[in-house]
Design a protein that fits this description.
The chain is an alpha+beta fold. It has 22 helices and 13 strands. Strand 5 and strand 6 form a beta hairpin. The termini are far apart.
Length: about 425
C-alpha cells in the first residue's frame, strides 16, 4: 500500500500539505507530464482518501496527454485500456494509471461508453460517478480543484452523484453497488435524489456480469458495517435483482438481524462470506433447528454460481449448508464427525461455528470439536493391501473394511496393525 503523510487541512479544505518523501512516484509522474507541456492532476479516490486522512491504496493521474504521448515520456508503460485513454506507468515498484481527459459517448451496454473524445480537466470530472470522487489535486502545491461540490459533500459526509443521478446509473449499473460500498465504508449518507435513482434502476444490476457483482460485494463486505450493507442492498432493490429468493428470505426481520449479528461478531474471511451471505436460503437458518439441516440447497448453489464464486467458496458454502446441524451436539460416536473434520473446507465451517457462538445464546460444542479435530487421524488408515491379503476383495467390501477400521480407531482407540486387520476382515466377511 502506498503511504503519504497529510499534515493538516488548510483554507477550508482547498489545500493540502503532503509529505511525499516515502513515495514520490505520483509527484514524479505529474512533474514529468507538466514539464512536457501537459496538464496533470491526481484524481479520483486517492484525492478523496487523502482529504479523509486515509492512506490511498493507489494513485491515479488525469492528464491532457494522450496514451501515445504518455508512452513517449516514460520508459516502462503498460497499455491498460487504450480505447479509454488509460496507460499504466511503472516507476520501480510503483504502478500508476495515467488517464487522458475524456468526455464519453452513450453507454450502450450499461458498462462502457461507445466512444470517448478529448476534453478539459473540468469536462473529465463531469463524467465521473460521485462528487467525492471528482476532486483534483495538484501534488506540488496541495491545491484542490473542485468543479462538482465534492469538498462540501465530504465535509457534510454525503454521497451524491455528479450531474443527474439517473444518467450516472444508467451509464454504468455497477455504480449502484459502488454507491452502497462508499456509503458503508465511509459512513456517509446517500443524498436523496441519488438514492431515488438507485432504487429506480436497481433492477438493472441483474444485467451485470457475475464477476463484477462478486468483486463489488467482496470489497463491500471487507469494509464497514455488514448490517448497513444488507440494509441498503435490500431496501434499494439490489438484493432482489441479484437473488429474488434471498431477498424474500431477508424480508424476515429475525433472519436478517441474525445474519447481521453473525457478520458483526468477527471479521469474516474471503472463503466464508459467500456461504454466510447465502445461508438464509437454508431451511434451518430461521430457527437454527439442526433437524432441518442436511439436504443440499439448489437455490443457494444457483446464487453462488450467478455471482461467480470460486469453486472453493461454493464447496465451503455447501459444507455449511448441509453439515452445520451435525456439529450442534456431541455424537455418541466421534467417528460420525470424521468426514466433516477432514473436509478441506472445515476451517470455514469452524469459522461459522465461532461466529454462531459469539452471536447466539446457544453455542456448538467448540471445545470438543477442536479437541477431536486435533487428535483425529488426518485420513482413514491405508490398509487396503493388508485387507486384500486377509481375503477382502477389491470393490465395495474393501471400502467397508477401511471405514470400519477407521471407526474402531476413532471410537475404540484400536491401533492400526495385523490384529485390527484380522478382526475387521472377519467382521466384514461374516456379514457377507
Amino acid at each position: 500500500m502506498s503511504t503519504v503523510r497529510v499534515y493538516h487541512w488548510v483554507h477550508a479544505m482547498t489545500r493540502l500539505r503532503i509529505d511525499w518523501t516515502e513515495n514520490d512516484a505520483p509527484l514524479s509522474v505529474v512533474n514529468t507530464l507538466r514539464e512536457a507541456g501537459h496538464e496533470a492532476w491526481l484524481a479520483g479516490g486517492c484525492v478523496r482518501d487523502l482529504l479523509l486522512g486515509i492512506p490511498p491504496k493507489d494513485f491515479d493521474i488525469a492528464s491532457s496527454a494522450s496514451p501515445h504521448e504518455v508512452r513517449k515520456l516514460f520508459p516502462v508503460t503498460i497499455p491498460v485500456q487504450p480505447e479509454l485513454g488509460v496507460t499504466m506507468v511503472v516507476l520501480g515498484t510503483q504502478r500508476l494509471e495515467v488517464t487522458a481527459f475524456r468526455m464519453e459517448g452513450p453507454y450502450l451496454d450499461g458498462r462502457r461508453p461507445s466512444h470517448v473524445v478529448p476534453t478539459t480537466a473540468q469536462g473529465d470530472v463531469l463524467r465521473r460517478d460521485f462528487s467525492i470522487n471528482g476532486l483534483l489535486l495538484d501534488p506540488l502545491t496541495g491545491e484542490i480543484a473542485d468543479h462538482v461540490g465534492g469538498l462540501a459533500d465530504l465535509e457534510a459526509k454525503v454521497l451524491r452523484a455528479i450531474g443527474t443521478a439517473q444518467e450516472r446509473f444508467s451509464e454504468d449499473h455497477l455504480r449502484i453497488l459502488r454507491a452502497v460500498r462508499f456509503a458503508v465504508r465511509l459512513g456517509f449518507a446517500i443524498e436523496d435524489s441519488t438514492w431515488q435513482a438507485m432504487c429506480a434502476q436497481s433492477s438493472k444490476v441483474a444485467l451485470l456480469s457475475g464477476e463484477r457483482i462478486h468483486e463489488e460485494l467482496a470489497k463491500m463486505f471487507a469494509h464497514g458495517s455488514f448490517a448497513r450493507c444488507l440494509e441498503l442492498l435490500q431496501d434499494c432493490g439490489v438484493m432482489a435483482a441479484i437473488s429474488p429468493e434471498l431477498s424474500t428470505a431477508l424480508e424476515c426481520e429475525p433472519s436478517r438481524q441474525r445474519l447481521a449479528r453473525w457478520f458483526a461478531a468477527k471479521e469474516v474471511s474471503s472463503d466464508l462470506w459467500p456461504g454466510l451471505l447465502s445461508v438464509p436460503l437454508c431451511p434451518w437458518w430461521e430457527t437454527l433447528d439442526p433437524a432441518l439441516c442436511g439436504a443440499p440447497v439448489p437455490v443457494q448453489d444457483a446464487l453462488l454460481e450467478r455471482i461467480r464464486c470460486s469453486k472453493a467458496q461454493i464447496e465451503a458454502a455447501r459444507l455449511l449448508a448441509t453439515r452445520w446441524g451435525d456439529l450442534q451436539s456431541i455424537p455418541s460416536q466421534p467417528s460420525k464427525w470424521a468426514g466433516i473434520l477432514r473436509d478441506r473446507h472445515f476451517p470455514s465451517l469452524r469459522e461459522a461455528l465461532e461466529l454462531q457462538s459469539c452471536a447466539e445464546s446457544t453455542s456448538p460444542p467448540l471445545a470438543e470439536i477442536d479437541r477431536l479435530s486435533h487428535t483425529l487421524p488426518k485420513a482413514p488408515p491405508p490398509l487396503g493391501v493388508e485387507f486384500q491379503k486377509a481375503g477382502i476383495p477389491k470393490g465395495p467390501k474393501l471400502g467397508q473394511a477401511i471405514r470400519e477400521a477407521d471407526r474402531r480407531i476413532i471410537d475404540e482407540g484400536c491401533i492400526p496393525g495385523p490384529d485390527l486387520v484380522q478382526a475387521v476382515a472377519e467382521f466384514i466377511l461374516e456379514r457377507s
